[in-house]
Write a structure and sequence with these properties.
The protein is of the alpha+beta class and 272 residues long. The protein contains four helices and 14 strands.
Length: 272
């Protein structure tokens, strides 16, 4: 019995000889990373991400262009665009880094300026003044406690002077005055001997009365209580009158004036 063998058909190649699939992965990756890197470069504080992605996109884009030149890839345009976006992302990264470091440096400078408060030295009242001036003579060399008529002289040219207290009669609608207590007014003068404008809106004035140092509440009525406001030009001064409520038997009043966030507060010991 004879056996008939089926002639075997040769397998046809899946693709023509010498032909390879296009290797477009580098170009696509360069485009995607370039887009993400460019967008990151437009977002504050993301300059570092833009730099990393931009560098990778540029490298992949250049490698992809090499493939396209050798005929291994067919997306030369996409690859070129990805490399360009990578370069743009790198440029944005550098610009963002410069702006960020500059902003941080300015913030640190402002913080250091706020922390390093300007200190004051005592400037006693002139001997030719009233009795208050004579009492002030003993304050020379003290930086924290002054007497009536003395000035706290700050190193930037700002000078704060607190004058002697005067008895005051608060009206019936006054806020902060307790029946049976006494009221006193204190005049505060701030002179700007520096070179920059001075903002007086942040001035704080507080007081304590008597040996126990009880809080002397500030009095507000139709005549006193407004305090300081506005700015003071170099060579000019500004004056405000404050009224405080003190126990009837109080013999002294401690007034503390803070010129602002950048200055130390100074204290005056005033006789009632």
């Amino acid at each position: 019995m004879s056996q008939h063998t089926q002639p075997q058909q040769p397998y046809a190649p899946a693709q023509p000889p010498g032909s390879r699939p296009a290797r477009n992965g580098l170009g696509i990756s360069a485009l995607v990373l370039g887009i993400i890197g460019t967008v990151s470069g437009l977002i504050p504080f993301f300059f570092w991400l833009a730099g990393i992605l931009g560098l990778i996109a540029l490298i992949l884009g250049l490698a992809g262009r090499g493939r396209a030149k050798r005929g291994e890839a067919t997306n030369k345009g996409v690859t070129t665009f990805g490399a360009v976006l990578g370069l743009v992302a790198l440029i944005l990264s550098v610009v963002g880094a410069v702006l960020t470091f500059k902003a941080v440096d300015e913030a640190v400078t402002d913080i250091n300026k706020a922390v390093a408060d300007s200190s004051a030295s005592a400037k006693p009242a002139a001997e030719s003044g009233a009795a208050a001036g004579g009492a002030a003579g003993g304050t020379e060399g003290k930086d924290d406690v002054l007497r009536e008529g003395d000035s706290a002289a700050y190193d930037d040219g700002l000078e704060v002077t607190v004058n002697a207290p005067a008895s005051y009669t608060a009206d019936e609608f006054a806020i902060g005055h307790t029946k049976g207590n006494k009221a006193y007014t204190v005049s505060v003068v701030i002179e700007n001997k520096g070179k920059e404008k001075y903002d007086a809106t942040l001035v704080t004035v507080d007081a304590r009365a008597g040996e126990d140092g009880v809080n002397a509440e500030q009095i507000f009525d139709g005549k006193v209580g407004e305090g300081f406001s506005g700015t003071v030009l170099p060579g000019k001064k500004i004056t405000a009158t404050y009224a405080f409520d003190a126990p009837a038997d109080a013999k002294d009043l401690t007034v503390e004036v803070g010129p602002g966030l950048d200055w130390d507060a100074s204290q005056w010991e005033l006789k009632l």
